[in-house]
Design a protein that fits this description.
Strand order of the largest sheet: 7-8-6-11-10-9
Structural class: alpha+beta
Order of helices and strands: HHHEEHEEEHEEEHHEEEHEEHHH
Shape: rod-shaped
Largest sheet: 6 strands, antiparallel
Strand content: 15-25%
Helix content: 40-55%
Radius of gyration: 46 Å
Distance between the termini: 44 Å
Mean pLDDT: 88
């Protein structure tokens, strides 16, 4: 029973070792895949930031090249006449409108001019809305107008978020006269990810960062729905969203809801692997988007990646486990049976040694072994018998001729049968 228990423990331990090694190998490959898709998302996001920075700088330089721009904004800032400001606003709008029509097709959300006190002068995307003070809403405008330096990055507004580039504006005498914003939609970012790198993504925004009463742009509406990824976030809808795919990933996110919540709370980029969806695993990568002034995580870029490479990895490890189990089962079965047979033989030998009177001699006639039963009945110890001629136990009633015939028969290769009478010590 003890032997069986030891054998079972060793068998289970070896199978556990196989499981551990294959699971470790699986996890290493899964971790690499998670890193790959997270790194891919990060690199594409950083490439987009570089691209939009270059584009924003170009738009900024092109805009400043408008001969009347600086003069118009300077006059508007330095006049208290509301009607005169309205005239100057309309003049600036008309001058910039042709260029605005071109650049807004590239994903521009806001093309916006504000005064040094953070009061909106002209929104090219919404020219009828002006005069509101943005000091408490747009911290990037406040920072630019205070420090007179460029501020870039994600920022919320009254009703929408954007990836913003805010530049200070100076007149001919290098006097600060306001700030100028070129902002890109997150939809533009997602379009780039999808069409250039085939990355399907969500852009989710913390509900706390802006007023959820969304205002309409001239050419489109910013639409938000409750994010599947987190209760505290809104999902920014884009033209690449489709209800079928959203329905597909909804149960996936439900599986990982607690892990997602934990990752979001840590405010560091992370990725997760889902169970199979339509025969494939999904790797979901989360990249934090920091607010451009407070540096707080205010949004997340989330990518959904089919990972077909994981299926064969997991299948292979399962095959290895099954094969290892079968091989170990066979090996342990044969080992058990062999050991059992050896034990049975040892028991029989012991019984034979203790109960059967026999001795073994070499060709020289000297004793090389004797059973315990032989030793007991002859009253010799085994040590006393080993090496002695067998005649040491010959009884006087046994003639020498009988032994001579026995040896001649044996040496001829035949079996001798007969009764032998031995003497005690």
């Amino acid at each position: 029973m003890y032997f069986k228990l030891i054998l079972a423990v060793v068998f289970l331990s070896l199978n556990f070792a196989v499981y551990y090694i294959t699971e470790k190998n699986n996890q290493d490959k899964i971790d690499y895949a998670k890193f790959h898709y997270l790194n891919k998302l990060q690199l594409n996001y950083e490439a987009f930031l570089t691209f939009q920075l270059t584009q924003a700088n170009l738009i900024y330089e092109t805009t400043l090249n408008e001969e009347m721009l600086v003069d118009t904004i300077s006059k508007a800032w330095n006049t208290a006449d509301v009607k005169q400001r309205d005239i100057l606003r309309e003049k600036l709008f008309n001058a910039l409108y042709p260029n605005y029509q071109k650049i807004k097709e590239t994903g521009i959300l806001q093309y916006h001019f504000v005064f040094p006190d953070n009061t909106s002068f002209l929104r090219m995307h919404k020219p009828d809305k002006y005069g509101d003070n943005l000091s408490s809403v747009r911290l990037d405008f406040a920072k630019v107008n205070t420090r007179k330096e460029i501020v870039r990055g994600f920022s919320q507004g009254r009703t929408a978020h954007a990836l913003r580039n805010v530049f200070p504006i100076f007149d001919a005498n290098k006097k600060h006269i306001g700030a100028f914003e070129v902002s890109f939609t997150s939809e533009y970012l997602q379009d780039n990810l999808y069409h250039i790198s085939e990355i399907y993504s969500h852009f989710i925004v913390d509900k706390a960062v802006f007023n959820t009463k969304m205002w309409e742009r001239n050419d489109r509406v910013v639409q938000y729905i409750q994010s599947y990824e987190g209760d505290d976030y809104l999902l920014s809808l884009t033209n690449i969203e489709n209800k079928k795919y959203l329905a597909k990933i909804k149960p996936v996110i439900a599986q990982l809801k607690e892990e997602i919540k934990l990752g979001l709370n840590k405010e560091l980029m992370f990725s997760l692997v889902s169970k199979k969806v339509d025969g494939e695993h999904l790797i979901i990568a989360f990249y934090p988007i920091y607010q451009n002034v407070t540096s707080e995580v205010s949004a997340w870029l989330v990518s959904y990646n089919n990972a077909p490479e994981l299926t064969p990895i997991i299948k292979e490890s399962n095959y290895i486990r099954v094969i290892a189990f079968l091989i170990l089962s066979l090996l342990f079965y044969f080992f058990y049976k062999t050991t059992k047979q050896k034990n049975t033989l040892a028991t029989l030998n012991k019984s034979y040694d203790e109960n059967v009177i026999f001795s073994i001699t070499g060709l020289s006639g000297r004793i090389v072994h004797a059973s315990k039963a032989f030793c007991k009945i002859s009253e010799y110890t085994l040590d006393e018998l080993i090496g002695q001629p067998h005649s040491i136990v010959r009884h006087e009633d046994m003639p020498k001729k009988a032994f001579q015939e026995m040896w001649e028969t044996i040496q001829s290769g035949k079996v001798w049968r007969g009764e032998v009478k031995n003497a005690k010590k």
